């Protein structure tokens, strides 16, 4: 039987279904796994995504022709049965299951296994062929349990607040910021969000995700409140005039990349918290094993390392060359645009 999914210049393509998965060039029919900028692009004729992610997709892409599926709900298109299953990455993120003539393929999008309370938890889906991301697909990437990371973040904030110094935590505005909010201890002080983060918080709250109360800088009348506050801002705010109001502050960056030696220094921040919305190395391996797939196709990330390991462990492994990844860089650009568009509004 020929392959159900191939890679074309527009993106991953389901041959019998005649649709694309997270295409990077404009196509007629696109299934979108989640709303990060490298996976969800403008210009497609029709979009299919999860109901949980529909609000964010519309907010980011504007007017689009979007059909939404609930998790687990199935539709048949050109004889291919499609369904979307939680990927545990960000609100609305999904793995796409495709079944055609008894053969099952799953495209993972981005995923993480640890349940974080801000999106539906990852669900493992059995398949014959699994197309997996590999952003952190190297043995050095092993995440600490998130409760420990949040303990560290709250302790850093509490110490700064005790010394009358604002805590500024840089992180990506969509997904990471809301996950951090969910893990903060709001009894320490006020939580202030940059204008790039606030609209995403609103979309999460609309979707029923519990987040602590947050303020915009312009809401803070008594400026002494800022000295005990934690500020969440996108990386592009670092070094911008927006930061001047905080006077003497301590800053930090939260990302999986903080695992890399030197990345904290490169960012020029006081602290680095290793917190990723992607699976670590053991997570990738256990997710792959749980699918029972005999064939694995690796996309963006550490392709050669993953493929070699999988082959050494008896799996039929290959790769697809995609234009995903560098997601965090893409996110930064997008946030920068949003800030410029907002005319410097906080
Ligand atoms: Zn993503
Ligand atoms: Zn990705």
TrEMBL record:
SUPFAM superfamilies recorded: Metallo-hydrolase/oxidoreductase
Gene3D superfamilies: Ribonuclease Z/Hydroxyacylglutathione hydrolase-like
Biased composition (Basic and acidic residues): 333-346
Region of interest called Disordered, as start-end residue ranges on this chain: 320-346
PANTHER family assigned to the protein according to its UniProt record, in alphabetical order: BLL1145 PROTEIN, CLEAVAGE AND POLYADENYLATION SPECIFICITY FACTOR FAMILY MEMBER
Highest taxon of the lineage: Bacteria
Protein name (record): RNA procession exonuclease-like protein
């Amino acid at each position: 039987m020929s392959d159900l999914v191939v890679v074309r210049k527009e993106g991953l393509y389901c041959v019998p279904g005649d649709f694309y998965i997270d295409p990077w060039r404009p196509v007629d029919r696109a299934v979108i796994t989640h709303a990060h900028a490298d996976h969800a692009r403008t210009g497609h004729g029709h979009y299919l995504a999860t109901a949980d992610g529909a609000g964010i997709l519309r907010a980011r892409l504007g007017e689009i022709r979007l059909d939404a599926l609930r998790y687990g709900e199935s539709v048949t298109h050109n004889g291919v049965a499609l369904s979307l299953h939680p990927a545990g990455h960000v609100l609305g993120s999904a793995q796409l299951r495709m079944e055609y003539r008894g053969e099952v393929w799953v495209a993972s999008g981005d995923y993480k296994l640890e349940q974080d309370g801000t999106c539906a938890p990852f669900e493992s889906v059995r398949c014959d062929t699994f197309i997996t991301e590999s952003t952190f697909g190297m043995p050095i990437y092993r995440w600490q349990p998130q409760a420990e990371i949040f303990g560290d973040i709250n302790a850093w904030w509490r110490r700064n607040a005790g010394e009358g110094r604002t805590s500024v935590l840089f992180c990506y505005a969509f997904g990471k910021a809301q996950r951090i909010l969910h893990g903060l201890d709001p009894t320490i002080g006020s939580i202030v969000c940059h204008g790039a983060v606030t609209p995403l918080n609103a979309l999460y709250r609309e979707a029923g995700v519990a987040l602590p109360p947050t303020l915009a800088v312009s809401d803070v009348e008594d400026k002494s409140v800022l000295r005990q506050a934690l500020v969440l801002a996108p990386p592009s705010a670092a070094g911008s005039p927006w930061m001047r109001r905080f006077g003497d502050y301590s800053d930090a960056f939260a990302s999986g990349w903080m695992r890399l030696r030197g990345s904290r220094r490169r960012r020029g921040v006081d602290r680095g918290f290793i917190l990723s919305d992607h699976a670590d190395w053991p997570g990738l391996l256990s997710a792959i094993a749980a699918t029972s797939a005999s064939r694995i196709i690796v996309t963006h990330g550490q392709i050669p390392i993953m493929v070699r390991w999988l082959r050494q462990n008896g799996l039929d492994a290959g790769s697809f060359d995609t234009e995903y990844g560098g997601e965090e860089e893409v996110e930064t650009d997008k946030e920068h645009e949003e800030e410029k568009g907002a005319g410097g509004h906080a």
